[in-house]
Specification:
The protein is α/β, with parallel strands linked by helices and 342 residues long. It has helices spanning 48-54, 140-144, 149-159, 175-187, 201-207, 244-248, 275-278, 292-305, 319-327; strands at residues 9-12, 23-26, 36-45, 71-78, 90-93, 123-127, 131-133, 167-171, 190-195, 211-214, 228-233, 251-259, 283-286, 311-315, 334-338.
Length: 342
Amino acid sequence: MSSKTVQFKGYALTDPSKWNDLKVIEFKPKMFEVDDVEIAITHCGVCGSDVHTLTQGWGKSKLPLVVGHEIVGTVTRVGDKVTEFKVGDRAGVGAQRGSCLDSPSQNAEYPDGVVAQGGYSTAIRAQERFVFPIPDEIESRDAASMLCAGLTVYSPLKTHGAGPGKKVGIMGIGGLGHYAVLWAKAMGAEVYAFTHDDSKVEDIKKMGADHVVNTGKKNFHKDLARTLDILLSTRDVFGDKTPMSDYLSMLYVHGRFVTVGLPDTDDPLPSIHAFDVVVSGCMLGGSKIGSKKECLEMLELARAKGIRPWIQELPMRDVGKALQDLKSNKVRYRYVLTQDIA
C-alpha cells in the first residue's frame, strides 16, 4: 500500500574538502521490498557520527553522501508483509535501517548496488524490524534524537542495571550525555555528571543530575574513590591527556566502565595499567545503538514520565551551521533539522 510518490532528495557531501557545505541532490533509493516501510521525513537529528563521517575521520566515504540517522516522519508506503505500520502513521528510524540477517559484516551498499543514504533528505526506506512507532504524546522533533543519541545510552544503562540503589556516572554532557542523565535519573539511579565546562553546570542540574563534578579541577576524583557502579563515557574525543586511571579509580568493586562515544580512528582510548582494573575488579566494555525492544521501552519511559530532550531546531538548509556548531561544541544539546526540501 502506498500514498503519493515520494521524491528522494537530500543534502549531500560532494567535496570532502568542504565537509559541511552540503548540496541538494537527487538519489536513487533501495529497491522496495515486501518487509520495507517508506517514510517521508519531517525531522532529523544531527549526530556527532555525522561529523566524523563527513570529515572522513572514520575513513573515506563514497560520494555523494547524505548522512543523518535520527529520523522521524510519516509512513507513505508499506510492503505486503509489513504488519506494524500503515500509511499515515508516524514512525522513526535510527542508526540501522536493515540487515541481511545472515552475515556479521556491515555494508553501506545494498545487494542491488544502491548506496545507502541518510536522513538529511526527503525520504527513507527501511526494514520493518528497524522502524519504530512514535507515541502520540511525543512530538516528532523530540522523538528524532531519541532514536540514536537516546537509544545509544539507554541500552547500556539498562543492560548494566541502572536503577534504584545504583550510582551512575556520565562522562561528557553533550547530545548523548544529556540523554544519559535524563534516563539514569528516570530509572531511579543516583546520577553523577562529569564535565569540564562550567557553563553547563546549571543545565545539568536541571536535567536531574544529583552531583556535577568539574573534571578540570585537580584531584576531582579523589573524594569519589570506589563510588560508582557504572561509569558511562559518551566522549568522542579523548586524546592522550585523559586521565583514565583517575576515572577508573571511582568504580566500585566489579563496577563497569562502558564507552559509547566513537572518536576518529587516530584517537584511541588512553592507555591504562593493570593496577587500574585489578584492584577493584572493574570491567571495561562498550555498547553500540540498541535493540528494537530497548527502543520501545525507552520511548515508553519518555512517554510515561514526560521526558523531553534539550534540543535546538533549525531548517534543514542550515545543516552547515549545525554541523560546525557541533564540531565546535556549541550545541545545547542536540540540533534537530526540520524538512525544507520542496
